[in-house]
């Protein structure tokens, strides 16, 4: 079952908050809910009812495959188009896909942190 825009965003928020050492806020604009691990962004949820998307970090090769595989996945809005993708509601965008994408983004960011900043290192 495809995730509607608000469900897609709620799923992404819940997945992010279930991960260790996650913080979130609105550092850029009141319409962008930003999720970080050790002050590094891994998820942006757009709080705009007309643009219900999430933006996540992604390996460039995986990002290209995702963009080609799903009509509602596009190169990342607001950020480097090679390393970020945006997911919107549409065919094939399931809650499982959203959760996996958020977790993968978190892992990608966390593994590149200095060892002492990684979740669980404290």
UniProtKB/TrEMBL annotation:
Q: Which UniProt keywords apply?
A: DNA-binding
What is the superkingdom listed in this entry's lineage?
Bacteria
Q: Name one GO molecular function term.
A: DNA binding
Transmembrane domains' residue ranges: none
Looking at the Swiss-Prot or TrEMBL record, what is one Pfam family this protein matches? Answer: YjbR
Q: What is this protein called?
A: MmcQ/YjbR family DNA-binding protein
Kindly list the organism's lineage. Bacteria, Bacillati, Actinomycetota, Actinomycetes, Kitasatosporales
């Amino acid at each position: 079952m495809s995730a509607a825009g608000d469900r897609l965003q709620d799923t992404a928020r819940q997945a992010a908050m279930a991960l260790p050492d996650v913080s979130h806020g609105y550092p850029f604009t009141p319409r962008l809910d930003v999720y970080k691990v050790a002050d590094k962004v891994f998820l942006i949820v757009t709080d705009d009812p007309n643009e219900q998307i999430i933006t996540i970090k992604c390996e460039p090769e995986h990002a290209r495959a995702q963009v080609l595989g799903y009509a509602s996945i596009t190169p990342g809005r607001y950020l480097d188009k090679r390393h970020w993708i945006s997911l919107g509601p549409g065919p094939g965008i399931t809650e499982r896909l959203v959760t996996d994408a958020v977790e993968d983004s978190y892992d990608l960011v966390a593994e590149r942190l200095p060892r002492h900043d990684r979740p669980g290192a404290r």
